[in-house]
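To whoever is on call:

I kicked off a structure prediction for a single chain this morning and the downstream step that reads the tokens threw a length-mismatch warning. I double-checked the sequence; it's 287 residues and nothing unusual in it as far as I can see. Pasting both halves so you can look.
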Amino acid sequence: MALLFFDSPSGDDPLPPAPATPATVATATPTASASPDASPSPAPTAPTATPPPTETPAATASPESSPSPTPTQEARPTPDPSRTDYPDLVVREVFSRLNQLFVVVANAGNADADGVVEVSIDGGPPHPIDTGKALRPGDFLEYPLEGEYVQRRGQVVVTVRPTASIVERNAGNNVFVGVVTPDAPNDLAVIDITYGGSGPHLIATIRNRSPIPLTGEVTIAIREFSAEDQLLLRETRELDVERGATQAFEFPAITTPPLESVQVIISTDAINDADASNNLLPRRGPR
């Protein structure tokens, strides 16, 4: 994630347009239980008493040996060996559009795929995708994954999983590994430094100038301009800010330096920062 400098805390650059409304595009092509131990019955006429049987632990299954319940899984029909026409779902492509993650799922088989398809990212929860109509052989589906964003360049593992209504003979090609890069700039900027709250204490405000929400960690350093250029504080805070919104960070320990002698600098690995010049305020020297 990157930052810009602002000579004036109020001057914000316009944001990139928000990601497009999710849309589905399909291009069609024709085509022995244990019995209890018996207790001896005393015989009144027996000359000698029969010794009681030695007590033996009952053969009950221990918790460790009991079959543990497996997570509930959706029953899947078994492919019919005599059948030759099956759908085959594959991930053709993964890409970023205004930094939202899109996947392209295709039917590479020779039969229709009719039903809901699920896609998961990096082993996360499944995203159900309703195709709306059957994916015929050769059809593909381009779909934005809600809540999945590209904050920086990195590898993604995408798994496509048909639900019970779709029977595949080949499930070995359902995983796609690729690298995705943001296609629009992601940027964080320090836009204001002030004293407020109880104390009062220092409050620094950061704006998200990206087309997507941003999460992760941001490191904030606070310096006081002096002969020694003194570092007053450096802390890592949680970043959670919507597109175009601001997030304020309060520092109760910073109460005394004159505002004109304080500088705030931010850095983060959560994004590929498009503009590092606005990562500090003021840009240089005392204001």
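Update from on-call: the warning came from a stale cache, not from the record. Cleared it. Sanity check on the structure: Residues 80 and 103 are 30 Å apart (CA to CA).
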